[in-house]
Amino acid sequence: MVGVAIMAIILAFGVPSFQSAIASNRLTGTTNDLVSAMALARTEAIRRGTRVTLCKSANATQCTNAGQWTQGWIVFVDTTRSSTDASVDTGETILASQAASPPNIALKGTADVANFISFGADGRPKLMNGAAQSGFLQVCSTVGALADSRRARDVEITAAGRVITHTPSSVSASCPDL
User: Fold this and answer.
1) Is 171 inside a domain boundary?
2) Cis peptide preceding 102, ω within 30 of 0
3) For residue range 113-137, what is the model confidence (pLDDT) as tens digits?
4) Strands 105-109 and 94-98
């Protein structure tokens, strides 16, 4: 009986911190996956001398404008651009894909990066019409075990193509704040 009581006390203290560790690892993993996909797209655009696009994708074969980035994404060689949105056309090669994010992760972008990030041959992010593209994507955990100061990561893409990760000081559990 004493052993069971001790075990209950240990679990009472250990489970919340374990939930926090899992949520933190999922947040970090998703952020790293996104940053890696951006780096791949930029590197391949420069290496191939043509546009490479990263877009939201629920099926790993086509881009979508619906929902959040948490449904997954693809990186593809975008040789035939449409006028406003990213799309995989016949003959374009998909270089990488990412499955849906873990549960309790939200991932949303500001206006210019809400659906895609496209890098030109010079390594700069560009909208489909050729204008400069920049913005923020926020990766956020809705798990209550994380403090508001550790709940999110802002991934900034600058007009020069630089990717910068910030930790916002306070994000509510109803994230993302963007």
Assistant:
1) no
2) no
3) 999 999 999 999 999 999 999 999 9
4) unpaired
Contact present, 145 and 20 (Cβ < 8 Å): yes
Percentage above 90 pLDDT, the chain: 76
Q: How far apart are CA 92 and CA 79, in angstroms?
A: 7
How is residue 150 written in tokens? 């550790």
- Residue 64: give its domain's CATH number: 3.55.40.10
Q: How far apart are CA 48 and CA 165, in angstroms?
A: 26
φ/ψ of 59, rounded to 5, equals -120, 5
Burial 15-52 (b: 16+ CB within 10 A, else e): eeeeebeebbebbeebbeebbebbebbbebbbeeeebb
Whether the CB-CB separation of 34 and 155 falls below 8 Å is answered with yes
How many structural domains is the chain composed of?
1
User: Cα separation of 43 and 27, whole Å?
Assistant: 24
Given a contact cutoff of 8 angstroms between Cβ atoms, the answer to whether 76 and 98 are in contact is no
* CA–CA dist 33, 73 (Å, integer): 10
CA angle 127, 28, 140 (to 5 degrees): 65
Q: Is residue 7 domain-resident?
A: yes
